Amino acid sequence: MTQESMPLSHIGWDSFNRLPVTEKAPYLAGSDGRVFHVLLAQQFNRAALDSLGGLATRIRRTAKTEEGMTFLRGLMANKRAMLYFTQPSSRTFLSFSSACQILGVNVGEVRDTATSSEFKGESQEDSLRTFSSYFDMIVMRTQVGGLAEHTAWVLSNTERPIPIINAGSGKDQHPTQALLDIYTLQRSFEARGGIDGKTIVFVGDLARGRTVRSLAWLLTNYTGVRMIFVAPEPLQIGRDILNLLDAAGVTYELASDFETTIPEADAIYMTRIQDEWDTTEGESRKIDTSRYHFRPEYLDRLGPHAVILHPFPRRQEIPTAIDHDPRAVYWRQMRNGMWIRAALMALIFKKERLIDGYYASVR
Hints:
Order of helices and strands: HHHEHEHEHEHEHEHEHEEHH
Strand order of the largest sheet: 7-6-5-8-9
Number of helices: 12
Oligomer: single chain
């Protein structure tokens, strides 16, 4: 077994936890070198992103017919997934739940630790190991940073290792959101040369937005991408992300004037204020964020082929009046989450060849 494919069972937790994020990816594959755990954006290179996007498209098109849906639902009818969502969520939870239904996966859920034995004092580690006795995969969303990684390591060192998918872990990463964002950009730019060479403007709470942290890294896989981070100084993107971009040789700019960046953008990625991470009450309200809202009049400054994205939920940063503009692709972006997550699960359980074969037979 090579360093390029070294499962988590071959490294101690402290050693793995101390690794730079860019060096953790090789340990998240199975013994065959294929994707197993999905914890970090750094696991995915350009080839993997292209392949995953193509698989998502084939699943999406297959699901358009009754016969296709019947085929898809039979692919993983023998699999069970636990959705362990102890951080509030509706979109991500329903997206994963819908993706499971598309593939025939049976779903169990815990959305409040008060309904589990954690309420009785059981450790999270024991609770999650218990789930691994009943399920073939655990999808985790938690406020606890690093919990998804630790769970993956723990289960990889048991007699029943099962895949862990990080659906949002503390302030760290949200890799599957970044994957659906990339898929949305792939679809948006497929007639314009793809993502290469595009300018992506990130706006809002960039310091605490884990979606931005993950997507910014995935964009380093593309040639000539330029990123502009627009935020008030207290909410600007963190130095840890900029260090990764520097190491990757990516061109980026930090800005505070949103309006002047709009004509340059091929894509604008809006975010809300992440006040759930406030350390003191009312902390975020002390920051004037009104200049970082996309006003209807800004549409006149936006290029005709540019797109507007948002990971949702939204507040005042995008008014509903913009929803009907064809450049507003955030509702498509949300639907894309279901398809890319279905593709990811199909890949983990090695069903992509069956999907490709069926798709080719009905084209």
